């Protein structure tokens, strides 16, 4: 399912990051960072995340000098149960709202839905947003956050932050050129400490699908960037594409999870994860970088729930591709 | 791609955990904790003039308090990363699991938060501890007559 768009442009974007992301190699590119602890002056981690998401949306509107009533649609999602963070963050904005969930690929789903609405001229503009919070995600998916348990080297570290993007039908220099909606892929892995391996085939299939349906070579893009496979998942993806499709993307491929942090110095094991991981890297860094004129962003999501894994299920995963081009 | 073929690729690129090294670290760290406990035991015997058995209870209480305070200060999970299961298997791990659960759910209130969740991890130890004590007690009764 690959679509090309004629009139979907990125008007502006706003990113907020926590202290670990600030200390990473991309720290200086974020619009705002929090230095203090992860409570961010709020009562709980969940409320801190709600605050982050709302702030990203409010600051974006403020910078663009837009009123809430100027926005036709807002699409948002996150990792919390019932996507509660998005629901509470957008409460009170009085903007039509769609909540979406694709785990860490949520931002891609949001962009695809918004782009399709705009391209079909049903709406003029839309905000897409997502967030994640290291502590609220750990609390939900793993043990209590203060509980010290052994973590494998292949485990990832949920990024803290929020990101929002204003899409519009009015021309700017950044165009959402095309997108590919991925299929759920499950190769029977069930280790939550190695989600990069669980998600790599989904990303590989989506990348292959995208390139073949548009008749493109992987070198068409200045950079192909996956969401949060981590340093080991990254190698697995390259090997998978080479073995199955004889496609070599190693020269222009990277993973947002390994770009967000210095994986050798920071305590993040295999790299970053979470819906905001790919959003922070691509919104704050890649889309502002003149080096990259054509980028394929492929956020990856592990669509499991702890309950299903306890019932001996495996990890289904998904990836969607979004091609962004710099136009004159 | 077949599941087995893919698993081969995954195994090739996933780093191996050094089980032996972790086990040795746990063994030594757990042993050091034992030495520390014995030291405390002697000290309590000597200073408080307590019999060995009662001094042992005081040692357990001290370890629980120490582990809980270190958990609340956010230090214990860092120590576990260094010393592995050497700190989790002894009573310190039990105290740590309860304190960390209590901290985690304090925002949801005393009943639906702390009360409902404090045994989230420790419940395992209590349930299966009681069950195995019962089984071994019966075995001991049948074989040794009590």
Distinctive features:
heterodimer, A: 328 residues, Peroxisomal Thiolase, Chain A, domain 1, six-stranded mixed sheet, globular, B: 146 residues, mainly alpha, 7 helices
The DSSP helix count of chain B reads: 7
Number of domains of chain A: 2
* Count of β-strands of chain A: 16
What's the level 1 CATH class of the largest domain in chain A?
Alpha Beta
Main sheet record of chain B: none
What features would you describe in this structure?
- The complex is a heterodimer of chains A (328) and B (146).
- Helices cover 33% and strands 22% of the residues of chain A.
- Chain A is built from ten helices and 16 strands.
- In chain A, strands 1-9-16-13-10-11 form a six-stranded mixed beta sheet. A six-stranded mixed beta sheet of chain A has the order 3-2-8-6-4-5, with helices on both faces. In chain A, strands 7-12 form a two-stranded parallel sheet.
- In chain A, α2 packs across α3 and α6 (195-213) packs across α7 (230-245).
- With 146 residues, chain B is an all-alpha fold.
- Chain B has a domain at 3-104.
- Chain B has seven helices and no strands.
- In chain B, α2 crosses α3 and α5 runs antiparallel to α6.
- The relative contact order of chain B is 0.08.
- The model of chain B has no long low-confidence stretch (mean pLDDT 93).
């Amino acid at each position: 399912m690959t679509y090309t768009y004629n009139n979907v442009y990125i008007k502006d974007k706003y990113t907020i990051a926590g202290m670990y992301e600030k200390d990473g190699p991309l720290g200086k590119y974020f619009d705002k960072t929090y230095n203090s602890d992860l409570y961010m002056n709020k009562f709980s981690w969940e409320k801190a995340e709600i605050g982050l998401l709302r702030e990203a949306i409010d600051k974006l509107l403020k910078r663009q000098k837009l009123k809430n009533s100027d926005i036709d649609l807002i699409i948002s999602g996150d990792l919390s149960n019932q996507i509660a963070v998005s629901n509470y963050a957008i409460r009170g904005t009085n903007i039509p709202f769609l909540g979406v969930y694709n785990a860490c690929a949520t931002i891609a789903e949001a962009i695809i839905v918004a782009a399709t609405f705009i391209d079909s001229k049903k709406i003029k503009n839309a905000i897409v947003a997502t967030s994640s919070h290291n502590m609220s995600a750990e609390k939900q998916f793993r043990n209590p956050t203060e509980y010290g348990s052994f973590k494998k080297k292949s485990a990832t570290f949920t990024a803290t932050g929020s990101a929002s993007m204003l899409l519009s039908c009015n021309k700017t220099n950044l165009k959402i050129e095309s997108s590919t909606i991925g299929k759920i892929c499950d190769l029977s892995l069930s280790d939550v400490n190695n989600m990069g391996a669980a998600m790599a085939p989904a990303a590989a299939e989506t990348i292959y699908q995208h390139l073949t349906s548009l008749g493109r070579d992987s070198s068409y893009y200045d950079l192909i960037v996956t969401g949060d496979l981590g340093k080991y998942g990254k190698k697995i993806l390259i090997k998978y594409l080479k073995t199955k499709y004889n496609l070599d993307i190693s020269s222009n491929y990277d993973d947002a999870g390994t770009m967000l942090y210095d994986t050798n110095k920071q305590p993040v094991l295999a790299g970053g994860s979470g819906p905001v991981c790919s959003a922070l890297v691509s919104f704050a860094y890649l889309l502002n970088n003149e080096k990259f004129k054509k980028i394929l962003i492929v956020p990856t999501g592990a669509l499991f729930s702890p309950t299903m894994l306890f019932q001996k299920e495996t990890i289904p995963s998904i990836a969607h591709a979004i091609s962004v081009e710099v136009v004159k | 791609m077949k599941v087995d073929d893919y698993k081969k690729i995954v195994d090739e690129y996933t780093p191996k955990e050094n089980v032996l090294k972790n086990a040795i670290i746990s063994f030594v760290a757990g042993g050091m904790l034992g030495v520390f406990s014995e030291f405390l035991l002697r000290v309590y015997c000597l200073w408080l003039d307590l019999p060995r058995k009662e001094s042992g209870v005081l040692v357990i209480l001290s370890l629980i308090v120490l582990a809980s305070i270190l958990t609340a200060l956010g230090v214990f999970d860092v120590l576990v990363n260094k010393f592995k299961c050497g700190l989790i298997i002894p009573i310190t791990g039990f105290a740590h699991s309860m304190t960390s659960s209590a901290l985690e759910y304090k925002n949801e209130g005393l009943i639906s938060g702390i009360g409902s969740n404090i045994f989230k991890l420790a419940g395992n130890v209590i349930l299966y501890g009681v069950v195995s004590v019962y089984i071994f007690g019966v075995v001991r009764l049948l074989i040794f007559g009590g």
